[in-house]
Amino acid sequence: MYETINSPFKLGNVTLKNRIIFAPTSMGLKEEEYLEKLGAIARGGTAMIIIGDVPVLKSPFLSLYSRKGFLRYRRITETIHKNGALAAAQLHMSDSQFRSLIKYLPGMITGKIKPDEMRVLLNDTVSGYITGLTDKRIAEITQGFGKAAVLAKDAGFDVIQIHGDRMCGSFSSSIYNQRTDRYGGSAENRARFACEAVAAVRKTLPDMTIDYKLAVRQEDPHYGNAGVLKEELPVFVPLLEQAGVNSFHVTLANHSDLSDTIPPASHPYFHGQGCFLPFCDEVSRLTDLPVCGVGRLCSPDFVEEQLKSGRIQLAAMSRQLIADPEWVKKTSSGAGSRIFTCTGCNRECLGGMQAHKGVHCIRDRIKTANESLCHERKVLP
């Protein structure tokens, strides 16, 4: 049962023990709790864990370039490896001009500016920032992808994923990219930044497996502002393949409401299982490279069907593996009926992220409350 889910898969120069990947997720947890959660997901059978938002350049936040940051990433890869999974670094370059937002810091600190409002303010800076970057700065950033990839490999990462949504996605977008030089205008020009980032990694690490998070924007109805229009995929996919990618991780473009890219069960459009898989269908028609699907993948029966049919070759999950880290182990042991299925409520995962309380599952809160109640009953006279 679930033979395809649990079958090995060759991805570039690495072999995944099964077809399930933990999608990049900003957990917002203290280090020990974060490592504990990653370890649990790895022990639960997941083949590979993607660590999101690894900075491409030196950063005031933890990055691969500082000793403290490098050692933190090494602890992450060691935790993942000793619990049986591979580790991927999602190389990330912000497309927000934070200097222009300093005036909003007091409002953030006092809570007068809510996370969703701050997100809108950040997105409002993107077009001007992308359009105004000099060629010299662009070259520093794209070459930085190669330098960061080398450091990531040294820190123990097995695979590199290029974050095709933030700066790569904004250069790709006709909404944000208003340049009139070789990086703007046509779809071919707007693909140039992302292709140069991929090529920089391929040049520095010829044998490294490179995955590309391909962010797709759609109209009618409109969702996403960065990324690639579905109609532009025939331009972008071959160019990225020529630049050196080994696979595509396909999802909805960002820079809109988080509840679109992390859709709840009540979402007006992306409410069903496999809600982003139609984007995978578009990409698969254009390449023979493996395609990883994502978007409310919960049911083992549904995931097995998508993999077995060849619609996707890999399945990425975040909320489902946070809800039940042993999802994979249960499918391989015949205990699929005991899986705790993500309900898509978004209360403690996305809600926890937005409230700066860290990503958890409502299941954990219920369990903690029940344990506390049982303890109180035991100690009552």
From TrEMBL:
Q: InterPro entries, from UniProt?
A: Aldolase_TIM (IPR013785), BilR_N (IPR054629), NADH:flavin_oxidoreductase (IPR051793), OxRdtase_FMN_N (IPR001155)
Which Gene3D superfamilies does the record cross-reference, listed alphabetically?
Aldolase class I
Organism the protein comes from: Hungatella effluvii
The UniProt entry, under SUPFAM superfamilies, shows: FMN-linked oxidoreductases
UniProt GO molecular function: FMN binding; iron-sulfur cluster binding; metal ion binding; oxidoreductase activity
Q: Start and end of every NADH:flavin oxidoreductase/NADH oxidase N-terminal domain?
A: 7-334
Q: What is this protein called?
A: 2,4-dienoyl-CoA reductase-like NADH-dependent reductase (Old Yellow Enzyme family)
Matching entries from Pfam families are given as: Oxidored_FMN (PF00724)
Per UniProt, the keywords (alphabetical) are: Flavoprotein, FMN, Iron, Iron-sulfur, Metal-binding, Oxidoreductase
